[in-house]
Design a protein that fits this description.
This protein has 212 residues and is an alpha/beta fold. The chain contains 9 helices and 8 strands.
Length: 212
């Protein structure tokens, strides 16, 4: 079973990925893990990636694609299948992944797309507040401080401010739309309503994956 998992920041992709891996025994492959492993093991592509990172430069697509190919070619993946998380991030990478899978005689079985209304994600991601004195973290909606709290006693990190979160969501939507469409044309996308409770979302995913 070879799968991709996609979803906007805050949609619960990481939580569901962990549950999928546990349930189906496939290999979870995230971009960060791949890079760390390739660099630690000093693979050809890992050494090349590190040379860019050491200079503070972005790692080019051809190197990222090479690291993905190295990882997918390993024995544990061919034996158990994979859940690819965080790649592809661009339509160019999606096209490269098509070529990689062809070269490795692999087939992509499905794309799990955890779909959540961006306005709900904005509320979810921009609600975090931190108490100035204690550093304790709360959420305005899901875990508020005591009733009648003084907002002046709390602050938000720049990353949590609504305008920053909205910009991040907009970028992800813009980048993700052509990738989703690419896989829709291949009839591989399975949309999962991500607004529900975690266990209900996972139940829907299990039904889809079990049917593949």
């Amino acid at each position: 079973m070879n799968l991709l998992i996609m979803g906007l920041p805050g949609a619960g992709k990481g939580t569901q990925a962990a549950k999928i891996v546990e349930e189906f025994g496939i290999i979870h492959i995230s971009t960060g893990d791949m890079f760390r492993s390739a660099i630690a093991n000093q693979t050809k592509m890992g050494i090349l990636a590190k040379s860019y990172m050491d200079k503070g430069e972005l790692v080019p697509d051809e190197v990222t694609n090479g690291i993905v190919k190295e990882r997918l070619a390993q024995a544990d993946v061919s034996e158990k299948g994979f859940l690819l998380d965080g790649y592809p991030r661009t339509i160019e990478q999606a096209n490269a992944l098509d070529d990689i899978l062809t070269d490795l005689n692999m087939v992509l079985d499905g794309v799990i797309n955890i779909d959540v209304d961006p306005s709900l994600l904005l509320e979810r991601l921009s609600g975090r507040i931190i108490h100035k004195e204690t550093g304790e973290t709360f959420h305005k909606v899901f875990n508020p401080p005591a009733a009648g709290y003084d907002e002046n006693d709390y602050y938000q990190r720049e990353d949590d401010k609504p305008e920053t979160v909205k910009r991040r969501l907009d970028i992800n939507i813009e980048q993700g739309a052509p990738i989703i469409e690419h896989y829709r044309q291949k009839d591989l996308v399975y949309d999962i309503a991500g607004n529900n409770e975690i266990d209900l979302v996972f139940k829907d995913i299990v039904e889809v994956v079990s049917s593949l």
